[in-house]
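Hey everyone, long-time lurker, first post.

I ran two proteins through the pipeline my lab uses and got sequence/structure pairs for each. Pasting them in order. The first:
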Amino acid sequence: MSKIDLKQKKSMLWIRILSVAIPLAVAILLGLPQKLDLGDWVYNLPHVIGVINTLTSLCLIFALMAIKVKKNVALHRKFNTAALVLGTLFLLCYVTYHASAPSTAFEGEGAIKSVYYFFLISHIVLSIGVVPLVLLAFFYAWSGMIDKHKKIVKYTYPIWLYVSVTGVIVYLMISPYYQF
C-alpha cells in the first residue's frame, strides 16, 4: 500500500470517528444529570453562538462568491477555512453552554411556535448529518481531489449554509426568553 493510500485510509477513519464522536459527545454532555458549575459567564454564550453562526453564514456566502464569481481559489479556501474554524468554535461554545446552563424554553404561542420548532428540529438533524459532509469536502479539497470535492459540495454547501442560517434564526427567536 502506498503512502498516499495509507494517508487516505487514515483520514477516512478519522472522518468516520469524528462524524460519530461529535454528535455522541454533544448528546452525552447535553444529557448530563447535573449541570457543570462554570460560573455566570456561560450565560453570555448564546449571544456568542449567534454571532458565530452569523459569521459562518457570511463566510460560506463569501466562499461561494469567491469561487463562482471571482474564480479565486485562494480566497475561497480562506473563507471556507474560516467557516470551519468558526464551526469548531461554535461547537465548543454550544457544548460548554448546554453542559452548564439549563435549557431555555421557547415561550411563543400559536403558529410561531410551530415555525420555531420546524427550524430547531431541521437545524439539529441537519447539523448532525453535515459533519461528515464538511469533513469529506475539506479532505477532498486539501488532498487535491477537486472532482470529488465539487461533487460533494453540491450537497454539503446548501446543508451547511441552511444549518448556519437556521442557527441564527433559532437564536433570534429564542433570545427574548434567555434568563440572565
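...and the second, right after it:
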Amino acid sequence: MDDLSVYRKIIHIDMDAFYASVEQMDHPELRGKPLAVGGSSKRGVVAAASYEARKFGVRSAMSGALARKLCPGLLFVKPRFDRYREISLRIRQLFREYTDLVEPLSLDEAYLDVTRNKKGNPSATMLAAEIRQRILEETGLTASAGISINKFIAKIASDYNKPDGQKTVNPEDVIPFLHALDIKKFHGIGKVTAEKMYSLGIFTGKDLSLKPMEFLQEQFGKAGTHYYNIVRGIHLSPVKPDRTPKSIGAERTFAENLSSEIFMLERLDHIATELSGRLKEKKISGKTVTLKIKYSDFTLQTRSRTLPYFISDRSLILETAKALLYQDRLLNSVRLLGISVSNLNTPREEQVVVQLKFDF
C-alpha cells in the first residue's frame, strides 16, 4: 500500500440473516420471533438463525439440540432452497445493472467491482446505498455492505454495521482501520489461529503489523505471508465474474466435531442440496465428485470419484458423496465436510481486471 492512488472500488454485499429473513418475510407470524432454519433433532443442524435467535447465541452450523437448549422458545422451519435461490437470482440480476464484475460467494453474498460501473457514478459508497435500497424495495429484505479498495477489507467492513448498514473504508483509512481491529475480526483468521496469535502477543492488527514476515512464516507457514500482506492492506485477488470455474462446491463447518458417519449424512444432504442449486443456477453439470473432510486436528483429506456421465441432481451428488464417505475409515472426529463437482461441461470464460485511479 505504498501508492494509495491506484486502487479498485470493491463492494461486498451481504444479505442479513438471509434464509431466516426470507422465512419471516413469507410467513408474517414468524416476524420478531427467534427462528432457526434447519433441523431440530439431535442430528439436525441450524442452516441459518434470525437476529432474534442470535441474541441467545444461536448460530449457523450449530446442532439443533444445542440451539434449542440455548433458546428454549426457538422456532424451527425446514429450509426452502428453491425459494432462496429464486430471490438470490433476482438480486444478482440487480447487481448486473451496475457492473458485470460480480462474484457470488453464496446465495446471500457477493463482491462487486464498481471501479468502472454502468451507472457512471464515481462514488462506490453512493452505489452501495442505492443497491441496498433497491434490494429492500424489490425483495423486502435488508442487506449490509462494505466498501473499500479490495475484497478482504470490503468483506470485513460489511460486517461492521450489520444488520441493514454499510461502512466505507477509504484508501487513507485502510491502515488505521486494520491496525485497530481485534485479530479475530480479520476474515480468514479462525478461532484456533486467533488463539495462537494471542499466545504470541498478537491481539490487534497493529500487533500483527509489527511482526516481520520471517517470524510469521515460521509460525504459520505459507499463511504467514498472507497475514503479513493483508495487515498492510495488500490483497490483489480480483473480483471474478460469475462464470464456470474449474469446480463448484459447498461446505459446512460444524460447531461440534462429529465422530460417526451416521451423524454426517444429514449434513451431507444439506450440502448436496445447496451444491445442486448452484450447478442448476449456472446450468452446468460435472462428472467428478469430491468429498472434502477436515478433521478436528485440521488434517485435510479428499476423496474423489469420476462418473461416466454428467450430474447436477441433488440425489446423485448425495449418493456419490455417501459412497465416498464410507469408502475408508475416518481418521479422527470431523469439523468440516464439503462436496465439490468438477470436470464440468461448460467452457471457462476469461476475465479482464481493471485498476484505475478515482476519487472514492
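Reply from user beta_strand_b:
Welcome! Quick read of the second one: Residues 146 and 158 are 4 Å apart (CA to CA). The first strand starts at residue 10 and ends at 15.
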